[in-house]
Specification:
Blueprint (H helix, E strand, L loop, with lengths): L2 E5 L7 H12 L4 E6 L12 H13 L5 H17 L5 H14 L6 H9 L1 H16 L4 E3 L21 H5 L9 E5 L2 E3 L5 E3 L5 H11 L4 E6 L4 E2 L11 E2 L1 E3 H9 L11 H4 L4 E6 L8 E4 L12 E14 L9 H11 L13 E7 L5 H15 L3 E14 L8 H12 L6 E4 L5 E7 L3 H14 L1
Parallel strand pairs: 1-2, 1-7, 2-4, 3-4, 7-11, 10-12
Antiparallel strand pairs: 5-6, 8-9, 11-12, 13-14, 13-15, 15-17, 16-17
The structure holds aspartic acid (ASP).
The site of aspartic acid (ASP) has 14 residues, from α8.
């Protein structure tokens, strides 16, 4: 058994957390590859080291005095090393590293910013490796540069280059525990590039896929993924097992445990993923895998949802006979750089659901005008303040009762269903409702499916 273990920012926020990481890693010899984030928040009013680094970079780019901000960051690391009883050597290494990044070429703003953003993970990995060594275990810090973790040159939004999967296999030849910084890699021009925010999850998955690991353990600060958002329903039931497809459907709308792209590298490799809690490692956590667990207690796996959608409703007599009508509408959205989410349709009607953040009064007027003038639509309207709720479960559509229960629950609570989409995804039912009904809908659906 070989595992990749990833620790998020809250698992590395202070010395106590780093000790927990040490205990988790050294308690299991199969935990050979460890990916770390930058130190995160110690409490709700604290600032993540990555955000502190962004501020540092912005000050440097504006040619302002950076001394205070630099000291704040060093202090964060020093608090950790002091709490771990480590010498100040590593702080000098971190200072030197930050100064050299600050002195790097500023001509491309995004490149400079990425170079500084990556310093959180990079220095945290050095610190953790040194601490594990000081406790008598062999651990090696490995830079993504040394092993060819190559990414596209999109600063702040990079994606993996396929050659990396082969390159990273060299990690197998390292002795002891490998400590690898998450969140960044290198472009083919050897520039530091970062993944989107939260990208250490992606790094962990990339390593797990490259090294054909049996398990990718993702340590965070919750015991499980829950059947519903715990901020809406208190103490909801945990999910023991779920499939990659279910996780994708749930995280599309509101389940933010994991970085959205993190499962892509392991999805094709059949690697198992285990979400676990650094503060309670004995809890089994949630397993994510390809196959459906046959011992499920409930007909669905979870309920998620999100607010902030708008619907463009279009009506034209004999629309169904007009070849290319839908394409032309979508083309207009494409020209405005608006991604669309769903498009339920009738014989003479089509509705396009998009996230409201892509609209403003000017864009709306333009779209309505174009659809009316160029496509000769009779009626075009845009409705705002809509929410989507997803009822997710691999086998939920095999059970004829699922849709019945869903509409019954909403009806009993006086919630009007504005749109319903069942069947295009074999494992979810999507319901459109008013934003104002969102929390109430989640609660009543949870009670119906999990409590009755
Ligand atoms: N430190 C980075 C962030 O705050 C990446 C990560 O934690 O995964 O987004």
């Amino acid at each position: 058994m070989l595992k990749v273990v990833k620790f998020g920012g809250s698992s590395l926020s202070d010395a106590t957390q780093v000790k927990k990481v040490f205990n988790i890693v050294t308690s299991d010899p199969s935990r050979k590859f460890v990916v770390v984030s930058a130190p995160g928040k110690r409490n709700s009013s604290d600032t993540k080291v990555t955000d502190m680094l962004i501020k540092l970079a912005e000050k440097a780019l504006a040619y302002e005095d950076v001394t205070h901000q630099l000291n704040l960051i060093l202090q964060r690391f020093q608090d950790i090393t002091a709490g771990l009883g480590m010498s100040d050597d590593i702080i000098r290494v971190i200072l030197q590293d930050l100064v050299s990044r600050l002195n790097s070429d500023k001509s491309i703003k995004e490149r400079f910013l990425d170079n500084l953003k990556a310093a959180g993970e990079d220095n945290c990995a050095k610190l953790v490796a040194q601490y594990i060594n000081s406790q008598g275990f062999k651990a090696t810090y490995v830079s993504p540069k040394d092993v060819g973790l190559l990414l596209t040159s999109e600063f702040g939004n990079a994606q993996i280059l396929p050659v990396s999967y082969q390159n990273l296999k060299v990690l197998n030849s390292y002795e002891g525990i490998v400590i690898f910084p998450g969140f960044f890699g290198y472009s083919v021009n050897q520039e530091v590039v970062t993944l989107p925010r939260g990208g250490s999850d992606v790094t962990g998955a990339i390593l797990a896929a490259s090294l054909d690991c049996d398990l990718y353990e993702n340590f965070t600060d919750v015991d499980y993924i829950y059947t519903v958002n715990p901020n809406i329903v208190s103490n909801p039931l945990p999910i023991d097992h779920l499939t990659f497809k279910e996780m994708r459907e749930l995280s599309y709308a509101g389940f933010s445990v994991f970085h959205e792209e993190a499962l892509t590298p392991v999805y094709y490799k059949f690697t198992h993923v285990n979400i676990k809690n650094t503060n309670n490692p004995a809890a089994p956590g949630t397993m994510i895998h390809q196959q459906v667990n046959e011992n499920r207690k409930h007909s669905i796996t979870g309920i998620s949802g999100d607010k902030g959608f708008s619907t463009i409703n279009i009506r034209k007599y004999l629309m169904n006979r007009e070849i290319g009508f839908g394409r032309k509408v979508l083309q207009m959205l494409e020209e405005e750089s608006i991604p669309y989410e769903h498009s339920p349709s009738g014989i003479d009607d089509i509705s396009i659901i998009i996230r409201s953040k892509y609209l403003n009064e000017q864009i709306e007027d333009k779209l309505i005008c174009r659809i009316k003038n160029e496509l000769k639509a009779e009626e075009v309207s845009i409705i705002h303040n809509q929410a989507l709720v997803m009822i997710v479960g691999e086998k939920c559509l095999d059970d004829s009762n699922t849709l019945h229960k869903c509409s019954e629950a909403l009806c009993e609570s006086g919630i009007v269903i504005k749109m319903l989409n069942q069947g295009s995804s074999k494992l979810s039912i999507m319901v459109g409702i008013a934003d104002a009904d969102f929390e109430k809908a989640i609660r009543c659906l949870y009670n119906k499916f999990f409590m009755e």
